[in-house]
Amino acid sequence: MTQPTANCPNCGAKIVFRWSSSVQTVCEYCKSILVRTDIDLKKVGQVADLPPNSSPIQIGTEGIYNRQAFMAVGRIIYEYELGTWNEWHLVLNNGSAWLSDAQDEYVVTFAAPGRKLPAECRVGQHYTWDNETYTVTTITKAHYRGVEGELPFQYWDKQDVVFVDLMSTNGKFATVDYSDDTPVLYLGQSVEFEELKLKNLRSFQGWS
Amino acid sequence: MSTSGPNPPGTPQVKALNCPGCGAAITLRSFSQAVTVVCDHCHSILDAQDPQLTILQKFKAAVGEDAPLIPLGTRGTIRGTPYEAVGFQRRTIHVDGMPYSWREYVLFNPFKGFRYLTEYNGHWNDTSILRSLPTVNDNMSPATVTYLGETYRLFQSTKAGTSFVLGEFPWQVRVGEASDVSDYIHPPRVISSERNGNEITWSMGEYMAGRDVWKAFRLPGNPPDAIGVYENQPSPLSADTTALWLAFVGFLVALVVMFIAFESFARNERVFQGFYSFNTNVRGEASFVTEAFALKGRTSDLELTTTSDVNNNWIYLNYALINQDTGQAYDFGREVSYYRGYDSDGSWTEGGHTDRVAIPSVPPGNYYLRVEPESDFGHGTIAYAISAKRDVPQASYFGIALLALLVPAGLITWRSLSFEHLRWAESDYAPAGSGDEDSDNAGRPTGLGIFGKGSDS
Amino acid sequence: MIRNLYVVYGMIVLGTLAMAEYRGWSLNSVNEVKNVPRSVRDNPGSYRSVYSGYHHYTGGK
Question: Which segments of chain B belong to CATH 2.60.120.380?
Answer without folding.
Answer: 267-392
